[in-house]
Amino acid sequence: MSSPVPAPAQRALPASPIAETRHRPLPVPAVRLVGGPLGAWQERNGTATIPHCIKQLEASGVLDNFRRVVGESTAEHRGFVFADSDLYKVIEAVAWEIARSGTHTFDAWLDDVVALVARVQEPSGYVHTWIQGVAPEKKFAELEWTHEMYVAGHLVQAAIALARATGRTDLLDVARRFADLLDERFGPEGVDGICGHPEIESALVELFRTTGERRYLDLASRMVDLRGHGLLTVGSLGAHYFQDHRPVRESTAAVGHAVRQLYLNAGVTDVFVETGDASLRRAMDAQWSSAHDRKMYLSGAFGSRHRDEAFGDDYELPSDRAYAETCATIADLLWTWRMLLADGAGGAARYAATIEREVHNALAAAVDASGTRFFYANPLQLRHDHHSEENAPRERASWYPCACCPPNIARTVAQLSAYVATVTDGALWLHQLAAAEIDLPAELGAGTVRVVTAYPADGRVEIHVDAEVVSSGAALRVRIPEWSSRSSVLGPDGSHEREDDGYARVPLTPGATYVLELDLTPRLTTAHHRVDALRGAAAVERGPIVYCVEHADLAHEIDVDDIALVPDAPITVREGGTLAVRCRVIRAADQLYGADPSAEVGDEHAVIAIPFSTWGNRAPGPMRVWLPVSPR
Amino acid sequence: MSSPVPAPAQRALPASPIAETRHRPLPVPAVRLVGGPLGAWQERNGTATIPHCIKQLEASGVLDNFRRVVGESTAEHRGFVFADSDLYKVIEAVAWEIARSGTHTFDAWLDDVVALVARVQEPSGYVHTWIQGVAPEKKFAELEWTHEMYVAGHLVQAAIALARATGRTDLLDVARRFADLLDERFGPEGVDGICGHPEIESALVELFRTTGERRYLDLASRMVDLRGHGLLTVGSLGAHYFQDHRPVRESTAAVGHAVRQLYLNAGVTDVFVETGDASLRRAMDAQWSSAHDRKMYLSGAFGSRHRDEAFGDDYELPSDRAYAETCATIADLLWTWRMLLADGAGGAARYAATIEREVHNALAAAVDASGTRFFYANPLQLRHDHHSEENAPRERASWYPCACCPPNIARTVAQLSAYVATVTDGALWLHQLAAAEIDLPAELGAGTVRVVTAYPADGRVEIHVDAEVVSSGAALRVRIPEWSSRSSVLGPDGSHEREDDGYARVPLTPGATYVLELDLTPRLTTAHHRVDALRGAAAVERGPIVYCVEHADLAHEIDVDDIALVPDAPITVREGGTLAVRCRVIRAADQLYGADPSAEVGDEHAVIAIPFSTWGNRAPGPMRVWLPVSPR
Predict the structure, then answer these.
(1) For A241-259, b where at least 16 C-beta lie within 10 A, e where not — what string?
(2) Do residues B87 and B404 lie in contact, with contact meaning Cβ atoms separated by under 8 Å?
(3) Alpha-carbon gap: A552 to the closest alpha carbon of chain B (Å)
(4) What is the arithmetic mean of pLDDT over A434-457?
(5) Which of chain A's residues have a Cβ under 8 Å away from the Cβ of B389?
(6) Quick one: which of A499, B41, B78, B219 is 20 to 30 A from A291 by CA?
């Protein structure tokens, strides 16, 4: 079998619906992030994070796991049953990095690892090094635990990325053979079976999109249909953990293992986009509201519980015990982007604002300034006496025994440009106000839309239409975030106000320049009264950036947990984007409970707040996003 | 070997130091709880809870686990590796119940099970049905997991209780043989080894107290000394979980698995009482402050984390995710009682007040009104959409796969009377103001001190000295809780004020009656400002009773999570001991985060609050102890 090279329309598209959707994505290379923080992050991702991940694949034994299956290594199998997916995610990251930058740095490595995977693949199409090398008798026998289809899903995604980015289809051949085996075994003619960890669903839909073969979509649909009917042996973790507690169409609340729920939702959204299944669409609209209206951390993170890595109940959002797995934010990015493309009930502006919140806060905080150390859990508060836990250390680690997060960050950052804009009939939509060059889709004209801005450090956004020919009536839709008191785009033809859908509408006039001046005055944010963990507290935000107070900025004798915010005092923006916030120091007796809070509130003084995404880059120690509001 | 019958001085004493301690305990039968809630609870424990536990030992397979080892059953082993301890705890409960009530109801059952355990015991002294019947190759090979010494500890405690309560020493013979085996293997001449779950330490010290054999105390000391030096293979749970993270003398913060930490502390306290080791005493004083000044729930519960069943960081006390295992409260009762006897730095009044808080709230809430259903986890808040978890269901269960809690409740309630009073040179100390008859210790006189009261339902406490002879200068020390605005005991000789140690001093005058009128005005309690989970909220307390608001008392359309307390309004006591609290209903938009809390606070009206200990006795549903305080 030899896979066809993807059609030009699919080139370098992370998600590429065949069905008609209102919003159509732009390829990774069509949007170039230049001169802003996202562009710089992508550079660092390409030069530091991806090479670091490649080294860790060797150091952690992932590559040896493959080699030993074909007698090329004598090492013991290392890592979890799903460790193969680390390699596939890094291949996907490399693919998008090639699409973005055109680099050839990784070509030889790619040749090696793709050939290695091909050698390990059994004639049947099966490839899963833990099963093959450790427990062959468990092949397809314990689907709740073995992650076989999860691993297959990442293989498919890596292969599609590589094909779309480079045109090379050798890995796609491997991936299709595995997918064909799955179809043979679990398809309409096969047995009923689903994976304990959703992920294959999205991959299969994208494989349908890439190959045009309907049976991959049918298999994804079948897996969605089979879920929630007790096919898995769930044990003491319960069915919620495995997303097998309720049929997908009836499952309207985000519950159980957060990453599994959110990957599943991305896949379900892919399925309903291609099949038009309205019952799945309704379930996903309800799920999206559940996850984002009642269960999302301010940073754009998900999962309140360490036990079972799970969503909490509605409004259960403790800052200190936020599990907030990096992969959950990434899974939500994938899902929310698909909801935007699918024109879900949440609305494009809300989806785009969520993506902005996630990228600039939860996702950005998961990587250190060097690009080589990572958080797995992303709490919004670290206490003085917190001791490191396996997945929730006091400071970022260079790798984890369960290394799902770092390669997931690498593949996500490499494709960030794809989330910036979409095209609809007659309009280019600017969802993210990043410094960028955007190639105008041919249907709208010929040329480039250039966004020049230091946003989010500065509120001025200039949009230059560097195009000579533009199709008649074509417009630019510019998202204007709702926190900005100024909400119009100024152009040569006057002012264009934000419309009800959250976007201003600007004519795509060749040569024109438009200017948006966002109001980046720092603001205090409070939470819904049912969020017990945040009662009586406020967070400082500026534009899309969530701030925190870190011990390193406090005088030696002051503890982060003894600071109260003066609510009506002005917040000053300092050089470098940090803030000066007026606070008082609380002093209290040792009594844990009593008739009186017995807290003395000292004199007002300035405390420095830094972007949450940058915490932990100095000495590790206490931090908090939400600050008590001073009672006087 | 035949164990001596315990000396009369040890009869029916749950904890019985040999070393001189300021406070000396009174035996279970010397204090009779009559006419009050604790007495009624003991009755229910004897007639409902203990028989229920006995039935469950059969139903859950615990007894079959023993029978199958000696070929008397063909059943598979059921339950966890430590399931034998369920039986031993029930035997201990039966023993104290016999001491308390003189019942013969359980005599035949006792004969059966004691003989069964004796048949299962190997000639070496070893008895542990999981090892013997399932994995003999693991005998003493995986001490972190097998709970062999934990199970031995409960066997020893049951045997001592039975000997002290009834004089029968057949189980004590069995227990000593096992203890002797442990001493041979792990004693000074043996290998270094400690159990993954502390418990044996206290049991060995009590075995020394019962038998007078110093080697049991030495073995307990040795196990305390060996802990915290990395003897256990801890895996991903980390050394904290197993209490092996730090030498006991250097471990000043309560961390890791809460039940293990608190059982360990009870054992360490037993050791320093008998050895006089000042470094252990210092560590225990610091531990007690850590657990009670920074990590205790208002209900007297411990353990903020479901993950690892662990203590949280300082001030990490979420109501909704309180793990608050029933066994942790019981372990703390055991420890705090020993700290009282040991004259620890916390002070007798504080220890006694802690015991009162624990018994009337966390422990009482763990059993339903019928005495046959139990909570394992005891959260202080249940949300609307909470789904049951294995150890944290929405409502009490009749048993658990890990059934540590129900038998632990049974043995604790059966010995409650032992916590009421102590004797020091020249004084009888009344720590708990329960309706009771207390036999005057011979050193003080001959007769009974009779406490007549409906406390805590009513604040009037009458103390009758029904004695004809009292030793010269003998006094009664009466604890007067610090929440009471009235703090004096009135007698025929005038008024006796609470002294600095928290107790009034009253002469033990034959025939005299003393009256204490406690102020039971309901009060609002708030928490230390560092407790993020409780900021802006207050709890209602009355005397030692913590209250909660439960859905069953609210109008249909009002949610427990939408109620705000009017802080300065009077709280009314209703018939039956419930309260009427003035509240407002909060109504809010759906927005999770925003510039404005956007909560509308409705009209003031009365909401019923019930004792936390009685929640969940109607339809299961939302509950909360801590209520937001209305901003206006």
Answers:
(1) bbbbbbebbebebbbbbbb
(2) no
(3) 19
(4) 97
(5) 238, 307
(6) A499
The shortest CB-CB distance from B525 to any of A236, A384, A595 is to: A595
d(CA B234, CA A424): 57
This prediction has a pTM of 0.95
Minimal-distance CA residue of chain A relative to B306:
A307
A-facing residues of B in 200-219 (CB < 8 A) are none
A48, A370 in Cβ contact below 8 A?
yes
B516 backbone dihedrals φ, ψ, rounded to 5°: -120, 130
Cα angle, residue B376 at apex, residues B375 and B377 outer, rounded to 5°: 95
For residue range A90-119, list pLDDT tens digits in order.
999 999 999 999 999 999 999 999 999 999
Q: Rounded distance, CA B59 to CA B54, Å?
A: 9
Nearest to B593 by CA among A416, A537, A54, A575: A537
The Cα-based distances of A363 to A28, A46, A61, A377 in angstroms read 19, 16, 26, 11
Which residue out of A529, A542, A563 would a mutagenesis test of the B interface target, given it has the greatest number of B Cβ atoms within 10 Å?
A: A529
Within 8 A of B626 by CB-CB distance, chain A residues are 532
Residue B482: closest C-alpha in chain A: A594
- Measured between beta carbons, which residues in chain B are less than 8 angstroms from residue A531? 592
Residue of A nearest to B401 (CA): A236
Three-class DSSP category at A487: coil
Q: How far is CA B171 from CA A115, B86, B95, B121, in A?
A: 68, 16, 12, 11
Residue of B319, B539, B562 lying closest to A532 (CB–CB): B319
Phi and psi at residue A450, to the nearest 5°: -110, 120
Distance from CA of A586 to the nearest CA of B (A): 8
Report the residue of chain B nearest A626, measured CA to CA: B532
Residues in A touching B536 (Cβ below 8 Å): 535-536
DSSP for A133-144, please give it. HT-GGGTTT-HH
**Of residues A240, A313, A528, nearest to B591 (C-beta):** A528
d(CA B271, CA B261): 15
**H/E segment holding residue A496:** strand A494-497
Q: Does the distance separating the beta carbons of A296 and B528 come in below 8 Å? A: no
Per run of 10 residues, the mean pLDDT along chain B (length 632 residues) is 78 89 94 95 98 98 98 97 98 97 97 98 98 98 97 98 96 98 97 98 97 97 97 92 97 97 98 97 98 98 95 96 97 98 96 98 98 98 85 93 96 97 97 97 96 97 95 96 97 97 97 98 95 96 98 90 92 96 88 80 91 94 95 64
- What whole-number distance in Å separates Cα of residue A73 and Cα of residue A94? 25
Q: Nearest chain B Cα to A314, which residue?
A: B385
DSSP category for residue B553: G
Query: How far does the CA of residue A306 sit from the closest CA of chain B (Å)?
Result: 6
The partner residues of B513 in beta bridges, in order of sequence, read: B464
3-state SS, residue B436: strand
Question: What tokens does B233 get?
Answer: 């293979």
Q: Under an 8 A CB cutoff, do A526 and B593 touch?
A: yes
Contact status, residue B520 vs residue B571, Cβ threshold 8 Å: no
Residue B597 touches partner A, C-beta closer than 8 Å: yes
* Amino acid at site A371: G
Whether this model's ipTM surpasses 0.85 comes out as: yes
Largest Cα separation within chain B, whole Å, is 76
Q: What is the 3 state secondary structure string of A424-482?
A: ECCEEEECCCCCEEEECCCCCEEEEEEEEECCCCCCEEEEEEEEEEECCCCEEEEECCC
Q: Is B514 left (phi over 0), alpha (psi -120 to 50) or beta?
A: beta
B436, B420 Cβ separation under 8 angstroms: yes
Do A307 and B312 lie within an 8 Å CB cutoff?
no
